[in-house]
Amino acid sequence: MTRQPDLTEPPYYAVIFSSLRNDQDDDAYQVMAAQMQALASTQQGYLGFESVRDAAGKGISISYWKDLESIRLWKQQLQHQQAQQFGREKWYQNYRVHVARVERTYEFE
Amino acid sequence: MTRQPDLTEPPYYAVIFSSLRNDQDDDAYQVMAAQMQALASTQQGYLGFESVRDAAGKGISISYWKDLESIRLWKQQLQHQQAQQFGREKWYQNYRVHVARVERTYEFE
Questions:
Q1: Average pLDDT by consecutive 10-residue portion of chain A (109 residues)?
Q2: If you average pLDDT over residues B71-93, what whole number do you get?
Q3: For residue B96, which residues of chain A lie inside 8 Å, CB to CB?
Q4: What percent of chain B has pLDDT over 90?
Q5: What count of CB pairs under 8 Å joins A to B?
Q6: In 3D, which of A38, A96, A70, A41 has the Cα closest to residue B105?
Q7: What does residue B75 show for φ and ψ, rounded to 5 degrees?
Q8: Do the Cβ atoms of A1 and B58 come within 8 Å?
């Protein structure tokens, strides 16, 4: 998991991506995932990212965004569209996306 | 990760629990976690649960609920309160909770 993002006060938005990988011996996936994380962080309205994947290939990744418009633009970004297509064709057995409005947050350290 | 919950149409709510474990050699944690999952599933407004934890002890768990009142009742449930206390005292180095309203969802299979 990446470090907890340093988030602003709600409301903001979370895109929850729950997935099962097809083939974990695929270096191209790791490269693309790193590229997409780096690219997302440069997008308008990006607030943060966290991700966990277990040894069985099950994962939950969450990106945080200022508003729905930022999410829409990121989903349509050209390189990201290509990554999404690779994801469906090669990397993911299945995935589910939830777009949610964060109402409140609290933490323990 | 547990199986993807079979969710109703949005809107509903997600409680995102991002955490780092202290000590993963603790069987009591596994027992309590299973008990809390089972107990949560009997609560009013419970819709589903998914969770991933990696070998380094980093995890994201998401429970889905019908409304904020269901989340409030579950947070105050007596055995769950005790589990939360154990969590802070023994099991988690840190955690962060996001309560979010799911606006839309889509999936790929």
A1: 63 97 83 95 96 95 97 96 94 96 95
A2: 95
A3: 4, 105-108
A4: 83
A5: 114
A6: A96
A7: -60, -30
A8: yes
Which residues of chain A have a CB within 8 Å of the CB of B1? Answer: 18, 20, 54, 56, 58-60
CATH topology of domain A12-102: Alpha-Beta Plaits (3.30.70)
Cβ-nearest to A101 among B4, B96, B103 = B103
Token pair for A48 = 């943060």
Q: Taking the model in full, what pTM does it have?
A: 0.92
pLDDT at position A7 is 66
- What is the ipTM score, two decimals? 0.91
For residue B88, what is the nearest residue in chain A, using CA coordinates? A108
Yes or no: say if B61 and B87 are a contact pair by the CB < 8 Å rule. no
Query: Could A98 and B102 be called an inter-chain contact, meaning their C-beta atoms sit closer than 8 Å?
Result: yes
Q: Taking residues B48-66, what's their average pLDDT? A: 96
Q: Which two tokens stand for residue B6?
A: 């079979």
What are the residue boundaries of the structural domains of chain B, listed by start? Answer: 18-102
Q: Nearest by CB to A106, which of B68, B97, B103?
A: B97
In CATH terms, the fold of domain B18-102 is Alpha-Beta Plaits (3.30.70)
Give the separation between CA B32 and CA B87, rounded to whole angstroms: 10
Q: What kind and span of H or E run contains B88?
A: none
Q: Which residues, including other chains, have CB under 8 Å from residue B14's CB and lie 6 or more apart?
A: A14, A16, A98, A100, B62, B63, B64, B65, B98, B99, B100, B101, B102
